[in-house]
Amino acid sequence: TGTVETLEFQSEARQLLQLMIHSIYSNKDIFLRELVSNASDALDKLRLETYRDKDLRAETENLHIEILLDSEARTLTVRDNGIGMSRDDVVNLIGTIAKSGTADFLRKLKESKESAGQDLIGQFGVGFYSSFMVADKVTLETRRAGTDEGVRWESSGEGTYTIESLADAPQGTSVTLHLKPADDEDHLYDYTSPWKVREIVKRYSDFITWPVQMAKEGTATEEEDDAGGLETVNSMKALWARSKDEVSDEEYHEFYKHISHDWTDPLETVRMQAEGTFEYQALLFLPSRAPVDLFMRDAKRGVQLYVKRVFIMDDCEALMPNYLRFVKGVVDAADLSLNVSREILQQDRQIRAIRRRLEKKILSTVKTMMTEEAEKYATFWQEFGRAVKEGLIDDPENREQILEISSFDSTNHADKPTSLRDYVSRMKDGQEHIYYLTGESRTVIENSPHLEAFRAKGYEVLILTDPVDEMWTESASGFDGKTFQSIAKGEVDLGDETSEEKKAEYEDLLKWMSATLTDTVKEVRLSSRLTTSPSCIVGDAGDLTPTLEKMYRAMGQ
Ligand code: ADP
Ligand code: MG
């Protein structure tokens, strides 16, 4: 054991810890789910490491998770013999929050009211730090597999932590919580009670694929610390391999939370099974909220890949198109090699086939939701619509289906978006196109003179305000045989030609205006699109919209 160093938490980490200590989250039991989940990840990582690096000097016997309780010392310890952490790992992973979107999250939290805090925490997930909801001191001891030096980390969560080397630490990590006094009012249970802890493990971590072991009921914890004195608490059954009606919604939800690191129930659970030449099972989830990093460049995307129940990789982007990057879940493929790499996956024909099937399944699930569970669909669209619309550009092959599940603001209703199907069903006799106008906001669009004639005729116009709308409308040909038509571009034929008489009447004025404005506009013409405004500016059919022009300029093009 070396010298003890005292280090400071990074400021974001400090703020999160304060939140945990003065816990705003009422369900404190979930600290155990987080610790077991980390231990399970550490065992997965060890197994992967040993596949990749045959020379790694790691112990791979008897891989498991263990929970030790000591009611006298009032401690609870979660121990694993997984990958472990080096000193640098501990400083970087435990003393710092590297998660993208942390600053954003903390800002939102500050601005939010008390009651919204819980929701936000749920969206963010605080992992290891949740220990401080129930403990006033946490000790972590760890040794990275294949290395000799262990590390002890300790903190009460108040600004600083200590770190020192350990001479003979076992491989893996043990986290010991020095529990706060039990307190019924504060929903704090006695977490040294074996039955309570067992119950929590069963509830939240039953599907974990590694054994979670505890002292056999009726035996002393420390003395009989051998396999004989221990028993496995969880069933370890892979949920996707069990038959559908054997698994409860709650089990699915807990599994979702484990793989997504989200604290909120998913919106929808999707199961798939394919037999035959290429066998696979998939268990997918649509989250109920968009992650804070949905539109960030380094955001995680894709689902987990397993091969015959063995975890292979997280964030397998080859299995999900980018516009569905928020979909979480597991794909278990039977015929892949265990040491398959990301590069190989990108080119694998079978993987591409699975990805097409998953994509179709997600689209059809959302479509069903749209017709059968309107409210759920509305939530989905509110959270993920902006991402889904990227698919209209990225994936021309499925454009029609993506349009089918999309909704858009429109002049039909002030705050209820419409599907294109519904739009088409409301089209007036003689209306040939699906009309839309893009712009910065609903207010800006509603005040646009372009809208006047359409209002007068009772034609509905889609109000498109997302940047991505500028892009897909450029390339989408149409929906249900009707083409999209911007009302700000080209000559819009509303059926009532300006008469020859009128043209003659205004000829001189138009000539004069064209000459005077020659440096600014291409042409000045009479139009049927205005009813009260005297004039408006119209783009050519092939022109960029003002917003798109602004975007390109901002990108320096
Ligand atoms: P998350 O699990 O979402 O990444 P956590 O706060 O739960 O966030 O954990 C932070 C990081 O600390 C993990 O990503 C992992 O690298 C490391 N870590 C935590 N617990 C363990 C453990 N038991 N073994 C190895 N590494 C761990
Ligand atoms: Mg975690």
UniProtKB/TrEMBL annotation:
Pfam family, one: HATPase_c_3
Subcellular location: Cytoplasm
Every Histidine kinase/HSP90-like ATPase domain range: 27-183
SMART domains per UniProt: HATPase_c
CDD domains: HATPase_Hsp90-like
Record-linked PANTHER family: HEAT SHOCK PROTEIN 90 FAMILY MEMBER (PTHR11528)
Protein name listed in UniProt: Chaperone protein HtpG
Organism the protein comes from: Amycolatopsis halotolerans
